[in-house]
Design a protein that fits this description.
26 strands, globular, 35 helices, 974 residues, 5 domains, Glucose Oxidase, domain 1, 8-stranded mixed sheet
Length: 974
Amino acid sequence: MKLPSPLVYKIFILTFLLFFSTLSNSQELSDEKIRSLIEEFKTLHRGPYLKIEWFCDDGTKRDSKDPCPDKIGGIQHASYKPIVERLQEENHIFFADILAYTDKGDFWDANNQHSRLKQYQLNQYLMNIDNGWIMEKAQFYRGAIQSEDEEEWGIDFYNWLLLDNQKIEENFFLIRQSLKNIPHSGSDQTAQKIRNLSKVIADNNSRFMDVRTKLHSQPEESDIKLVKNFREKNSDKLSKTELQQLDSLQNSLQKFYAPIDLNWFAQKATVFPKDSYLRNKLENFSTNAANRENNSILIENAANLMCDIRTQLTEVQSTSDQLVALDISLKLEEIIFRTAPEWKPENLREQLDKIYALSLASASAGFVEWWEWNSVDHYLQLQQTDEITLENLQQKLTIARSQVEWSASMVKAIYGDVVEKYEAFEPKANSFIDDRLRSSIALQLGKSVSELGDFIAEKASLENKVFKLNNQSSIRGLNPGYALGELEIISGTSTEIDVNPNKIYIFQKPPSDLKPIAGILTVAEGNLVSHVQLLARNLGIPNAVISAENLEQLQKYEGEKIFFAVSEKGTVVMKEADDMENEEEDLFASEEKQKEKINVPTEKIDLTCQVPIPLSQVDASDSGKICGPKAANLGQLKMMFPEKVVDGVVIPFGVFRQHMNQKMPLQEGSYWDYLKATFAQAEQMRENDIPEEEIELCQLDRLFQLQTAIKNMPLQEDFKTYLAESFYDNFEQPLGNVPVFLRSDTNMEDLPNFTGAGLNLTVFNVRDEAKIVQGIKDVWASPYTERSFKWRQRFLENPENVYPSILIIPSVDVDYSGVMITKGINNDNENDLTVAFSRGAGGAVDGQSAETWLIDIEKGAQLLSPAREASYNRLPTEGGLTKKYSSFDKPILSEKNINAIRKMAKDIRKILPERTSKENTGPYDVELGFQNDKLWLFQIRPFVENKNAKSSTYLKSITPTIDNEQLISLETNL
């Protein structure tokens, strides 16, 4: 046998190494590696750049000393290091982007939710607040970036982008915000520079923190003197760099608050065609502003002109004129931002006028979509009247507060993805969203709304008592209840949080799979009808929404044991445990807690049915008998509305129990024997006075073993045969040919005092036979997960008696889906409907920021909150989930959809008591969806609220009786 030559060996080794290197380079860089790169770039004189080169128009590159020929043309700037290019290709992360080096379509990055553009903005922010960030040394690398080339590229980019009116309509907020960062003629970043400089100075000098807080929360012209006084008082303690930074900050403030140059607007007007709409409006504005009597007129006129620009932008024929119009809009926003503190309303009428003007300006700046603004505009406008009822004034406050919240949620929705991505390797990115909000009109609007809230609280003798925080009127209770526990704040994203059931948590947004906790506060309300919210409402877990400013003030109480209570009307009390009164301490007596336990009825369970059943053969009377309430009630709906409910298959309790009677591997008895022994052992441990924490850990360990064993349990052959036949009979397709949902449906759900919403598994859109078989076992195992067990263990007397059935229904690839509660949740009105929808499948129930409406059962609908989730799920016929993305420029529900929901609610209210029992009058929790405007029903269950919380004497005592008909003069002094 002839051996290969040494050359062949070498070729083989080189080929292998090259292949291995290619494999290695095809992987994303870890967050740890990116962190180390950032620190390395900071120390390098070229930072993330490789060298200066000529980039010729024919696509070739030349050395820095070898310019492109004149007949070809080109520009000179730095090129990226190979590791930076790898970050772009593998991680889709873009550091130190040179715009002149970038394709316009690649920068717009539409296929990735405009990630690259947003990263450019985030990079600019980090560079401003962190001494150049990765460009700390490279910012002095001469020739790396040519400002005139960047500005020329920026103009070209906007001329390219603004050609497409659909892009403008779908991305107005992002496009307008990007103008603050992308170089182009007319850009002015003075306001941003003020904020960034103040943060840098405060980060390096704690004595400046009070000044920085003032600049960030209540900026006004007097801050110039504040900075000047600080410099004079501390000059001997400051470094040369700090003195320079203070001088730069003072100069920027003086520039920002310099007298308004109205000639600027007159000059910009000449850009537009003569007698055009915007030209006339601009000329009128500059003339009226010059003759203004006070700041209120200036702000109102500026807000109206911003409105004209937003509504007319797509009608402007020239992209260069559109760019000028957007720059004017930014200048107007700056004027309103700096002038708003100087408008000090003397009476209630002026306060409402100011709130309306600031709300209009915020919407015109894109913080609120235009259809959203049109839905609330008429509520905020002040009618020709001299008096207003307290109830109507409270409604205006609610709507005005919503404009602040919608504005904040817009910033989070647009930039949250890139901030979350960067937070993993650069924690400083976390403050970007807050910076965008605090530099916007939303800051001034929030202050005015808070002042109105304080006025109303005084008139109604209604006030929150949350420590001694400022602006408490922005705090709102969502679910009534009371709790005692340690306060913990979860910053950033809240996925995979190991919560403690005895703690009170503050979330930016609660996770959809939240385990039991004592109390919840959220910075964003999220969704009134998500599973988490429904569980909280059902079980009397106090839940409130707070502002970002409130969160900042609550930081100092983290780790403290506190008392937290929310009344049915939304009043919130929070204090340190040591300050509790006797009445509050009595709420936590052990016998009080024992009354809240709920017993799961098991006496009527029929385990003799051990084959799949058609959905059409079950009804509400079978709930808790052969199957859970999901299947029973959906079967009832199928009888009532056969064209709106899909066919389905029910796997009853008996099939589960039959399989649980099989011998469990590595155990002496069956799966069921192991389950019973688990709870018997727990009772024995209690008799031996073993601490409950140890008992729970032991139970969870054994249940985890049971859960694992069930997932690997063999399905009986007879059952698999019956299952295959049921697919033919009900879906007219063989098993494996039709995508289906597998929904857990236990006997512990929808009890009179316990909802169990979302505790167990739903398998989405699975088609493959093997995956369906495995899905059945996974659903059977899901009641024994830690989360499901803890909710049951805490609130049920007999949590071991859980029997899961399974509802199998074919997938409906709905355009949007959601939940309807057949009452007003916030106003407790039986004539209203609370409806929340999200795009795609599985909408609203998992806590997405859903589009929520309060719908009058007869006519009229009020938007409570818009959707702020760009991504959604579609259900392809091959199974699985496909992620899609949408903009927010159009509502999810049309008027036609709302009318269909209204009719369905009427029919359910009328027919369900007739077909079941007279006592079954609701309210109901209904899951539904629309596909091509056809309404589909997927579930109906009772809407369960906590009666103890609603009837608590203490909770009633913290909400005074309010005279809603009380008349208040609009001339009332503030």
